[in-house]
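Archive transcription. Copying these from loose printouts into the bound notebook so they stop getting lost. Printout 1 of 2:
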Amino acid sequence: MPKKIAVAINPAASFGRGRNAGHQAVGFLRAAGLDVVVLEADDYDALRRAVDVTLAAGVEALVVVGGDGMVHLGVNAVAGMDIPLGIVPAGTGNDVARLLALPLNDTGAACRRLLAALETGGRRIDVGRVAAGGETSYFAGVLSAGFDAAVNERANSWRWPRGKSRYNLAMLRELVSFRRITYTVTADDVAWRQPALLISVANGQFIGGGMQITPDAVPDDGWLDMFVVKPLSRLRFLAVFPKVFAGKHTSHPAVEIKRVRKVQLDAESVVAYADGERIAGLPVVVDLVPAGLWVLA
């Protein structure tokens, strides 16, 4: 009896390329003998409801085709459940796929990796848990609250340009008006006031399509990495920024990375994003569910 899996496709991923990748993945997996239930919707909320209904009806795995937004949907659908999550990267950023060392921009290679993981059972990783405004959500990679989240907010409001350049241009535009933030941070029961440009709480390494903000983060070590960039002038920030792609920024005196298990962040007029998706305005409380996510990787 072939395994029954659900494949959720984001047709808007990578500005429309996700639909083609999704149908290619479905064809590849069916050719391998899997019983595939295809889930598509033009509306993100409708797709999320379809995923929930299908999981409740009984499937052996959930596969998402798209970028980090689709991964976020999948993580929140199966976190804490005994159902594995597979990822076929087809988005612009693909930062969680990078974290899991999955093939990018190659649907066939990603499907072959997925089939191999179905045979071996995949692996368990930790998952971040966010409490905000009375709601709980989960993330696999990074929660951002500060300058990087503001860049996401601006980039998401633009229809042009497409691809990674939109994030970089949004960063430059945001830098013109951005001011330092004074946070109230409580990490593992120690509280302090922290002036900073941004604070991120990371289970993984990457944001923004490959920036290694926490290059030593490991997604199954039971720790979160809190990343702080203290106030910098615009020119100094721009000098440090290119080093982030190679993870070479960590020795800069304005950068601090601290391993924690639980963090509360509070600041005025700051919105948190997790895996590139808008979560809520601060305050947020972030902790870790060890081995809380089963991934086909």
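Printout 2 of 2:
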Amino acid sequence: HSVTNIGLAAVSGCSSLTNMVLPFVGSQRGNTGSNTALFGYVFGSTSYDGGQKTAQYHSSSYSTYYIPSSLKSVAISDETILGYGAFDGCSMLETISLPPTLTKANTYAFRNCTGLKGVYISDLDAWWNVTFASTDANPLYYAKCLYVDGESVGDVTIPDTIGNIVPYAFYNCTNVTSVTIPS
């Protein structure tokens, strides 16, 4: 937990970046209420060769950032809440890894992430408890495939310890082939 803030445009111009690991989305952990809570914030709003113009919606307006078109994979290592529009418009992304600390994804968190092909998590039990504010708050809306520890989820057995499955937990997840629900 040593990184507490990431500055605006901290990685601007990194046009050949293909993957990255960040502790949180935007300027600081838990920031959910402004354009500083958007993924594009760390790339900035200055155009550069290889930067894909990305409009990200927050609160009531759009911010435009330039995110490397080469960026395919992002891992968030220590976030609890994804803010409104956190990854909105990031169509270049193919995979997203989310931490077991995640408890909520707000509306539009993954809207227009049309390139997503896989969502990677390490703890399926933690996934049951993530509150998704809408269908497009869940990266499975586009990705369709959930992976736990790198393995495709196929057969799901809901543990007796899970009293409730939040709405949209497996929305559009096509690689789940069976679900066993305890009494």
